[in-house]
Amino acid sequence: MHDSKRIRVLALGLIRDRDRLFLSQGFDPVEQRTFYRAMGGGVDFGEHSRDALQREFREEIGAELEDIHYLGCLESIFTYNGKTGHEIAQLYRCRFIDLDFYEREQIPFLEGKRSKLALWVDIEECLAGKLTVVPPAFLDYL
């Protein structure tokens, strides 16, 4: 997933629809814990983070975005699969162009060779701590 000696730069999209958020589901096999993170992915060298956000959504779930607005930068030092990771994420508020994405409860996709799931989750469950959202500072932007 990541080289523990490097800082990974990400572009993430905050997509909200009334009382729900569109997030990607992850699982830490060492901690046996499910967690949720905004959709997006790595920024390539020479690529603007906004362009990376659009590319990642297109590649992973075939979605085009609109109304993209920069919100801020999140920094996260964490442990995943027993290894320390360090990420800097540029966070954008955005919307799906295709309204069908708001009707789909779950969207399976591949991240490299790993099967993942993007889904709509209840904001209140996130804010109440019933669901683990990473990085935690993401919730400050709701």
Automatic annotation (TrEMBL):
SUPFAM superfamilies attached to this UniProt entry: Nudix
PANTHER family named in the record: GDP-MANNOSE MANNOSYL HYDROLASE, MUTT_NUDIX FAMILY PROTEIN
Cofactor: Mg(2+)
Gene Ontology MF terms in the entry: hydrolase activity
Annotated protein name in UniProt: NTP pyrophosphohydrolase containing a Zn-finger
Protein keywords: Hydrolase
PROSITE patterns: NUDIX (PS51462), NUDIX_BOX (PS00893)
Start and end residues of each Nudix hydrolase domain: 5-142
Tree of life domain: Bacteria
ATP-binding in keyword set: no
